[in-house]
Design goal:
The protein is an alpha+beta fold and 430 residues long. 50% of the residues lie in helices and 6% in strands.
């Protein structure tokens, strides 16, 4: 199905001509016409509009199929006859799905909006405000409080921005879009279960464009499996009850494998001429391996002899900050499959607990790339035998692996990052 679009009518030329004409008659006329043009342009370009009849038919057919599935699965008449028929597509959801900040922003830009003084100071206040609850959760689930607060801050700015979009319509839109239809169809059916079981009401179902809900932005599947009545009032309310939301988050992290006595990772320093050929990305090695290769802590002191698996993460390539991450980092990635997000959780948790900030070398600059350039590089690598999957302009595991191999085989620094040297070598840029 093609994405829905907004009607766009360009009236600028029309009004420019009339503004010029009437300015010769009266000096006030141009201002009146400019105001009128803005009002008309806003009203026209913000009215939802189905691009063509085929898009409308596709969505309607999808909803009819959903109704058949729901009937077959034994959902109530309320779901089948009252909820599903009222679902409608949201064009904005498709647009937001195609430009998620986790995959469209540089690490520096992403971090700048999430590791702020506000997040740090508010996070510390929340630790004090909910100390009794956090102590209970830490004892029962083994999740240090600073991590719960970091997730809370990143997800909804501590409950200030829980989302105002219709969760039902958002999920229906994504379920009827081909890109991730299977996943979002499953999610909307989980939501139907929550409605039928009276865990939630249709009236309260506001959230993010992707269907995430409440203080901690739980998807319906996570809501069904892990949500808990944390304040013991006989109901689960992830929107209004901070205790329910935080308890549910602790239960979720514990259930997906959080290791109580382990940290998420740490910032490190790589030595000059680091042996990239000896370390693959997205792969764990004994911490001792990195110590032998000359990796130190960010302050230059030796890594510990602690026996733990570690993975090297370079979110901005070899010229940016370097991290060694441990198994709990992968647990964070299960919450949100983005390295930028997972690093932000860990770094914010550190700052909330009192650690110093990220260390950035002044003599290093990061080569930024454009999504179109990366997509062209992916296409080029595919044609010459490096498998990156479907070119999409997103720097993921397959792209890191392919770029690293290309770099090593062409005498470049094997950091797996689509930097200027790689783009030039592959003749993507001049």
């Amino acid at each position: 199905m093609r994405p829905l679009v907004f009607a766009k009518v360009n009236l600028a030329i029309f009004f420019n001509v009339f503004t010029d004409f009437f300015s010769r008659i009266s000096p006030i006329m141009p201002y009146l016409f400019k105001l009128l043009s803005r009002l008309l342009l806003v009203s026209i370009t913000t009215v939802p509009f189905i691009a063509n009849a085929a898009d409308k038919v596709d969505f309607e057919q999808c909803i009819k199929g959903m109704k058949v599935q729901a009937t077959s699965a034994g959902f109530s008449e309320y779901i089948v006859n009252d909820v599903i028929p009222t679902l409608s597509p949201l064009e904005r959801v498709i647009a937001l799905d195609q430009r998620q900040p986790e995959f469209s922003q540089s690490f520096a830009d992403y971090l700048k909006l999430r590791l702020t003084d506000y997040h740090i100071q508010t996070g510390r206040k929340k630790l004090i405000e909910h100390k009794i609850l956090f102590d209970q959760l830490s004892k029962k689930y083994g999740i240090p409080p600073q991590y719960l607060v970091a997730f809370w801050g990143l997800e909804t700015n501590f409950g200030r921005h829980k989302g105002k979009m219709s969760v039902l319509n958002s999920l229906a839109t994504l379920a009827c879009d081909q890109r991730r239809s299977k996943y979002f169809t499953s999610e909307i059916f989980d939501l139907f279960h929550l409605i039928d079981n009276k865990t939630v009401t249709v009236k309260q179902l506001n959230g993010s464009w992707a269907g995430a809900m409440g203080h901690m932005q739980f998807m319906p599947s996570a809501f069904r499996k892990y949500a808990i009545d944390g304040d013991n009032d006989g109901k689960i309310d992830l929107w209004q009850s901070e205790a329910d939301a935080l308890t549910s988050a602790a239960n979720y992290l514990n259930s997906i494998g959080w290791l109580e006595k382990e940290r998420w990772g740490r910032q490190v320093q790589l030595p000059e001429n680091f042996a990239f050929k000896k370390v693959e990305f997205d792969k764990f090695y004994p911490l001792a391996t990195f110590k032998e290769l000359g990796v130190t802590r960010a302050n230059g002191t030796d890594l510990s002899d602690y026996k733990v698996g570690a993975e090297l993460v370079l979110p901005a390539g070899s010229k940016g900050p370097a991290f060694l991450v441990y198994p709990n980092f992968n647990v964070i990635m299960k919450w949100n499959l983005s390295e930028n997000y997972a690093l932000s959780v860990g770094l914010l948790a550190n700052r909330i607990q009192g650690a110093t900030g990220l260390k950035v070398s002044n003599n290093k600059t990061t080569d930024l790339y454009k999504s179109a350039e990366l997509k062209a590089l992916q296409e080029k690598l595919n044609t010459i035998g490096y498998d990156v999957g479907k070119p999409d302009g997103i720097w993921g595991p397959k792209s890191r692996k392919a770029i690293r191999l290309y770099q090593l085989q062409h005498g470049l620094v094997g950091d797996g990052f689509p930097n200027r040297q790689v783009l030039m070598k592959a003749e993507i840029i001049g």
